[in-house]
Amino acid sequence: MDESSTSWREQGKPPTLFKRFAFGSYGQTRAFLDALAALSEQAGQHPQNINFGTTYVNITLDAIDGKVLGEAEHAFAARIDALAQGSD
Q: Angle CA(69)–CA(57)–CA(39) in degrees, nearest 5?
């Protein structure tokens, strides 16, 4: 996996975390999306928005309480990073 952005970008109003992941092939993108779905179900947290193409995935996480990004959102983002690296 080739990450286009090295860290999650925090945005405000509404508070969100955003990151773009780039992959070398559609197969890698699809495998990541399938693993992300499994992780989301297991964690009980789901991205607010997922946008993808053949070799990229954009993920937006919103604040669970709708007001403030906290440890839960940042921990979930870290788990997604680990997943993208093939280690979750």
A: 60
